[in-house]
């Protein structure tokens, strides 16, 4: 089966954009990882907001999936923020905790062991820096591990005799996340009045899904470092579990960088470029980034959900002129891998 990995094949990266720094023994921030963030940028001078902003308009909405009105609340959140927090999402707490623990185990391994699963140039899966690294002048304070389909190929390299537990948990997690993503997608497509014919793929087995484990080590100079640089996700929806350490921020026009405070038993959902395209820009794709901190390590687990790679994304059923030309999922992934922030404007009509 063709998977998302295909879209990265023509886009080979230099090894310096793949091999992470060995963060374990650094007394200070190397120049290669220094960002010139102004104090205001870091502290986001627009936050807290004006007095006339109430708390509910100053942070992404919290939505209860059991709420009978959930679909409309989700639609509103996608229109205004491109993101929301989700409770009563149905993913067993023990499973989330288990995957979090696996991520902690993985990233605390000695560098040499992690490098056995290094992502190869032109590949999408394995251990390494963020895929967006080449588009920024400085490196990020981050290590990642990307999984598409079964994690066993890479897991066997890291733990030759002991990979099964990791694989079982990740596969269970992927299955549960897929089910949740399907529920959200059905609601979004219903709100967009997408035809039955164009919705048939939802619930099928050839969707494009990926799991991304992220690690942000504690950092000697957090104000001059960046965990993950500003980006939008190449997905329809991204469902994120973050540990209880702040860092994730979403950019909101007129407000600046807004923190997404971790809440126990709550997942963060954001819309990605693909839903932005399908909705003819009615749903935002949230620009987000991650800051780091001095004493606490931060972990997150992202699940990216997208239609099958040959699915044609086109702003259908819209009441105004299409703002994007039709592209397949695979074509869009490959444009994004090569052109990053320009991808949406490159397919604009
Ligand atoms: O670590 C986070 O909170 C966000 C991760 C993220 O944005 C990503 O993996 O695309
Ligand atoms: Fe992201």
From TrEMBL:
<dbReference type="Pfam" id="PF14226">
    <property type="entry name" value="DIOX_N"/>
</dbReference>
<dbReference type="InterPro" id="IPR026992">
    <property type="entry name" value="DIOX_N"/>
</dbReference>
<comment type="pathway">
    <text>Hormone biosynthesis.</text>
</comment>
<keyword id="KW-0479">Metal-binding</keyword>
<keyword id="KW-0560">Oxidoreductase</keyword>
<feature type="domain" description="Fe2OG dioxygenase">
    <location>
        <begin position="206"/>
        <end position="307"/>
    </location>
</feature>
<dbReference type="InterPro" id="IPR005123">
    <property type="entry name" value="Oxoglu/Fe-dep_dioxygenase_dom"/>
</dbReference>
<dbReference type="GO" id="GO:0046872">
    <property type="term" value="F:metal ion binding"/>
</dbReference>
<dbReference type="InterPro" id="IPR050231">
    <property type="entry name" value="Iron_ascorbate_oxido_reductase"/>
</dbReference>
<keyword id="KW-0408">Iron</keyword>
<dbReference type="GO" id="GO:0016707">
    <property type="term" value="F:gibberellin 3-beta-dioxygenase activity"/>
</dbReference>
<dbReference type="InterPro" id="IPR027443">
    <property type="entry name" value="IPNS-like_sf"/>
</dbReference>
<dbReference type="InterPro" id="IPR044861">
    <property type="entry name" value="IPNS-like_FE2OG_OXY"/>
</dbReference>
<comment type="similarity">
    <text>Belongs to the iron/ascorbate-dependent oxidoreductase family. GA3OX subfamily.</text>
</comment>
<comment type="pathway">
    <text>Plant hormone biosynthesis; gibberellin biosynthesis.</text>
</comment>
<keyword id="KW-0223">Dioxygenase</keyword>
<protein>
    <recommendedName>
        <fullName>gibberellin 3beta-dioxygenase</fullName>
        <ecNumber>1.14.11.15</ecNumber>
    </recommendedName>
</protein>
<dbReference type="GO" id="GO:0009686">
    <property type="term" value="P:gibberellin biosynthetic process"/>
</dbReference>
<dbReference type="Pfam" id="PF03171">
    <property type="entry name" value="2OG-FeII_Oxy"/>
</dbReference>
